Automatic annotation (TrEMBL):
<dbReference type="GO" id="GO:0004589">
    <property type="term" value="F:dihydroorotate dehydrogenase (NAD+) activity"/>
</dbReference>
<keyword id="KW-0560">Oxidoreductase</keyword>
<dbReference type="Pfam" id="PF12838">
    <property type="entry name" value="Fer4_7"/>
</dbReference>
<dbReference type="InterPro" id="IPR013785">
    <property type="entry name" value="Aldolase_TIM"/>
</dbReference>
<dbReference type="InterPro" id="IPR001295">
    <property type="entry name" value="Dihydroorotate_DH_CS"/>
</dbReference>
<comment type="similarity">
    <text>Belongs to the dihydropyrimidine dehydrogenase family.</text>
</comment>
<keyword id="KW-0288">FMN</keyword>
<dbReference type="InterPro" id="IPR017896">
    <property type="entry name" value="4Fe4S_Fe-S-bd"/>
</dbReference>
<feature type="domain" description="4Fe-4S ferredoxin-type">
    <location>
        <begin position="334"/>
        <end position="363"/>
    </location>
</feature>
<dbReference type="InterPro" id="IPR023359">
    <property type="entry name" value="Dihydro_DH_chainA_dom2"/>
</dbReference>
<dbReference type="GO" id="GO:0006221">
    <property type="term" value="P:pyrimidine nucleotide biosynthetic process"/>
</dbReference>
<comment type="function">
    <text>Catalyzes the conversion of dihydroorotate to orotate with NAD(+) as electron acceptor.</text>
</comment>
<keyword id="KW-0285">Flavoprotein</keyword>
<protein>
    <recommendedName>
        <fullName>Dihydroorotate dehydrogenase B (NAD(+)), catalytic subunit</fullName>
        <ecNumber>1.3.1.14</ecNumber>
    </recommendedName>
</protein>
<keyword id="KW-0665">Pyrimidine biosynthesis</keyword>
<dbReference type="InterPro" id="IPR005720">
    <property type="entry name" value="Dihydroorotate_DH_cat"/>
</dbReference>
<dbReference type="InterPro" id="IPR050074">
    <property type="entry name" value="DHO_dehydrogenase"/>
</dbReference>
């Protein structure tokens, strides 16, 4: 077993997997279920100075991911302060309290939640090109409490610019990314927009936004010196490993916890461990940020056909069906063969192979 522990500010996590601020930790009962499911920390659903009036329907699974019009907590701050936070604190896990959405609201709430929090995570909603709301929110929180303050950023911004602004304002860490949107889906039976919001729009999350989140995390890590926590489409240990390779300290999961229940936290942690052991790594520190030094500085135009591991090939033909260059075929033993004169080294067949019969040839 590898060392999965993470030192985040003044607390140690047994592994890097935790919930994201949202429905998975909608109250203390959900937090207790997350602990039982193996989470390393608790990140509470964001609260504001009043309870949210959430439109309905507000969540749906799509072929491409997940769409939602979820807002902040449907419970007001008094309910959280009197009942939920005290019970969550008793669980014995590090608690990151979600707060939003502007400097005034955060200033009012931060001191009240301080007794129950090990850190704060600020949500500043969806921003344009001006980082001022982030800066003001961070300063308000830091002025109010002596706690680590993280700020969550949306993907529709200039990542490096906002990350640096948050760091300069005093943020102790970043969380990237929030869901992406607005987006739209339509109920095919009625022809109505699927979400119950005023305009029918929602926000995309889940597996569809993982590459977007990975790029944002990579850019943020490159831009700042404070810890970055990754969130956005993470549903497997492999996803988490990629985020850590991009430089993330830890990962948060939301959509997969909604769809599959709280056992996903231990499942993802176990899959991270399996990866590290299989590849002879002893700890997360050995892979954290390694992608930063491997990023190409120019496009690669070399043509190299994938390497074939014939003993792994099952003859499923998936790579043949999807080869638009007609370069792949099976030999008489039903094993994959690649015509290197036809192969354009596009890489699709490697990513589609389910049996590790093809590998990239890197320089």
């Amino acid at each position: 077993m590898a060392d999965l522990s993470v030192k985040l500010f003044d607390f140690i996590l047994k592994h890097p997997v935790m919930p994201a601020a949202g429905p998975p930790i909608k109250d203390a009962e959900a937090a207790a279920a997350a602990k039982k499911g193996g989470t390393a920390a608790v990140v509470t659903k964001t609260i504001s100075t009043k309870a949210a009036e959430v439109p309905r329907p507000n969540m749906a699974q799509l072929k491409s991911g997940f769409i939602n019009t979820e807002l902040w907590s449907e419970m007001g701050p008094d309910k959280w302060l009197n009942d939920e936070y005290p019970a969550i604190k008793e669980l014995g896990l590090a608690v990151i309290v979600g707060l939003g959405y502007n400097a005034e609201e955060i200033s009012e709430l931060a001191k009240k939640v301080e007794p129950f929090a090990d850190a704060l995570e600020l949500s500043t909603h969806y921003l344009g090109s001006d980082p001022s709301p982030v800066v003001e929110s961070v300063k308000a929180a830091k002025k109010a409490v002596d706690l680590p303050v993280l700020v969550k950023l949306s993907p529709q911004i200039e990542i490096a610019k906002f990350a640096k602004a948050a760091q300069d304002a005093g943020a102790d860490g970043l969380v990237l990314i929030n869901s992406f949107g607005p987006t739209l889906d339509i109920d095919i039976e009625s022809g109505r927009p699927l979400m119950g919001s005023e305009n029918g729009y929602g926000w995309l999350s889940g597996e569809a936004i993982f590459p977007l989140a990975l790029r944002a995390v990579f850019e943020a890590v490159k831009a700042v010196e404070i810890p970055v926590i990754a969130v956005g489409g993470i549903s497997t240990g492999e996803d988490a490993v990629k985020m850590i390779m991009a430089g993330a300290e830890a990962v948060q999961v939301c959509t997969t916890a909604i769809l599959n229940g709280p056992t996903v936290y231990s499942k993802i942690a176990q899959e991270i461990d399996s990866y590290l052991v299989k590849h002879n790594y002893n700890s997360l520190n050995e892979i954290r940020g390694i992608a930063q030094s491997k990023m190409p500085t120019k496009a690669n135009y070399q043509t190299k056909a994938p390497k074939i591991i014939a003993e792994n090939c099952t003859g499923c033909r998936l790579c043949i069906i999807s080869c638009v260059y007609d370069a792949n075929y099976l030999d008489e033993d039903k094993k994959i063969v690649i015509d290197e004169d036809k192969c354009a080294a596009c890489g699709l067949c490697v990513t589609r192979c389910n049996f590790a019969a093809l590998e990239f040839r890197w320089d």
